[in-house]
Structure formats: structure tokens, C-alpha cells
Amino acid sequence: MTLSAVLFEAFEEARLRAPQLDSQQLAELLGISEGELQAARLGHGVRSLCLTACDLAMMLPRLGPLEIVTEAHHASLSSRIEHCRIDVGARHAHLAQGNTLAIEMLLPGWYWACLSHERRPGEEDTAPCVQIFNRFGQAIHRLYALQPAHPAWRALRFYTSRITPGFTRCIDLFHQATPPSQSSLIEQWQHLRNELDLRQLLRRHRLRRIDANRAVAGHFSQRINTNRFIMAMASTCHDSRLTRLRMCHTGLLHQHCDRFTFLSPGANQWLQLEGSTLSLSLDTLALAEAWEVIRPGASGSQTVLEAFDQQGHLMVALEAAQPVA
Could you name the domain of life of the organism this protein comes from (predicted)? Predict the structure, then answer.
């Protein structure tokens, strides 16, 4: 019996015992990556997509209304959109809907894409779903059909096969970078104008966001209690103000503006922040550090609240947004 057959039998058994769990949760239960689990299901409700990353990105606007889910460390961000436009370059694809949604996708990180039927977050019924994985079997993007009968989803079946991917185990190596002098970093910080400028600064000095926040503490940042970050999430619902959520990791940027209506507790200390077109799920048990950061911008200084886990990974960033047309 092959390893794929063993994993598929384990998946079937786990699904019978815990039908409420999705493929990601079942993969964690089995101690494998979600990509490995989906690959083991090839021919049993899962098909490989035989499209280049560029071709697949170009098809996204033709799939009709979508729910786009991005996973980060201990958090997920879900955007529901009626339509979108996309600009594709040599390495990046930029997906947008007006001024409310912007997703930057790093195409060289797209190792395997598959087509299947999965349960949307918070839903009981399954829907057509495209999942995009990196070479470590980690899901980078999930795209669910909000109109399952849309003809473009049927057309996707003509680009499928039984090609089996081979994933690599991920070893998370921590590199403690030495930041430049505080005066030098503060001077560079004053010239920041947008998120792209910040990411270039981090790459230039090989810094993580949390390292940069610590380096400019007392000038452009201050550490805050994690409960204050959670209270800020609650206040966005109370005030009903337009808020931008941002998630960044491994070359990916997903940001969306919305007015949130309620904050609700979920299982295992997860919090769910809901808006009309946007949902955020956050594992509060993993929330280890929070920062209030001031960034100069083209239209004035902007205050951002950032949440990090124990390893210093950014979970999500929260900021007030100007009304959009």
C-alpha cells in the first residue's frame, strides 16, 4: 500500500469520526501538511490544475463572485467580492476590487494548485474551490465559488489532471538580524510613504516587522497590552467606522477595508470579526505581543496596530481607513 493510499484511508476515517472538520483541520489532526492531504485525495474529489501560475492568475477575474481566504500564522482573512481586476507581471499578480481590496500574490511561490469541493468558512455546504499551495504543502490562497453554477468553474475541469505533487518539509530557521543604528533607522522611517516602502526597508536590512518596531520604540512605535488590541477590534464594531485589515507573509499582501458589525468568540479562544464583505479569524491564545506603530504617509501619519505570535510572526494589522468612493 502506497503512502498516498494510507493517508487517504486515514482521511476517510477521520472525516467519518469528525465530519465538522475541514481539510486543513484534518491535516493538522493527521500530522501532515494540507497539501499532502489533498494530494492523497487525487481522483477522489480533488484534481490537479495544469495551468501555469500566470495563466491561473489571469483566469481569476473570469470565475465570477469569489470568497478569497488568506492564511497567516494563527489567523485567516476572508474577502467576499462580486468582481475583480488583475494585473500580472513577471513575479507578482495584483488583484483588486476598487479601493476596498488589494491582494499582492507572489507567483514563483505557487507550487501546486488543485480543484475540489470544500466547505466555505462558516458554511455547512461545499462549494467549488481552488487551493494554491507552496512547495511545503502550505495553502497560500483559497478561492471559493460564490456562484457554483458559474460556467467558468465548469471550464476549469478541462485544465485538470492526476499529476501528483511532491512537497518538501519546512524547517523554520530563525535569523537574528542586527538592525542599523537607531538614528539611521529613524531617519529612513521618516521617509516611508506606504506599505511598499516599509517592505523594502525590511528587506534592505533583513528585519522582521517586530524587529523594526522594537528598534524604533519610543519614537514611532510603542508596545501595548494584547488586550488593547482585542479591545480595538471590538471598538471597530461599536463605532462602525471604516477599518483596514492587512495580512502580510511570505511575499503576500492581503488588505481589505470594511465596516465591521460584530465580534464573536469561537471555539478554542478564537475570535471572529465580521463585516459585510470581510471576515477575520484570530487565535487569541497565540497572540503574544502587540504594537502601536506610527508610519508617515503621503496623506499624513497613520497609526497601525499590529499583532504578533510567540515566534514574532505578524498575525494581522489593524488601522482606520479613510472612506472610499
Answer: Bacteria
Report the distance separating Cα 235 and Cα 259, nearest Å. Answer: 11
**How many Å separate Cα 54 from the centre of its chain?**
19
Q: Is 3-8+19-161's fold the same as 182-274+281-320's?
A: yes
Counting beta carbons within 10 angstroms of the beta carbon of residue 30, is it exposed (0 to 12), middle (13 to 18) or buried (19 or more)? middle
In the chain, the amino acid numbered 216 is V
Q: Strands, DSSP E only, in 23-100? A: 46-49, 66-72, 75-81, 85-88, 92-97
Summarize pLDDT for 254-309 with one digit per residue, the tens. Answer: 999 999 988 988 777 899 999 989 999 999 999 999 999 998 766 678 899 999 99
Q: How far apart are CA 79 and CA 63, in angstroms?
A: 15
Long-range contacts of 207-211 (CB under 8 A, 24+ apart): 207/177, 207/179, 208/177, 208/312, 209/248, 209/306, 209/308, 209/314, 210/289, 210/291, 210/306, 210/308, 210/312, 210/314, 211/177, 211/179, 211/312
What is the topology classification, in CATH, of domain 182-274+281-320? Heme iron utilization protein-like fold (3.40.1570)
CA trace torsion 222, 103, 135, 120 (10° rounding): 100
Task: Delimit the domains of the chain by residue range.
Answer: 3-8+19-161, 182-274+281-320
Cβ partners under 8 Å of residue 240, min gap 6:
259, 260, 261
Domain spanning 3-8+19-161, CATH class: alpha beta
Q: How many CB atoms lie within 10 A of CB 172?
A: 6
**Cell digits for 4?**
498516498
Q: What is the pLDDT of residues 230-240, one digit of tens each?
A: 999 999 888 88
pTM, two decimal places: 0.87
Q: Which residues pair with residue 132 across a beta bridge?
A: 113, 141
- Of the candidates 215, 249, 229, the one whose C-alpha atom is nearest the C-alpha of residue 291 is 229
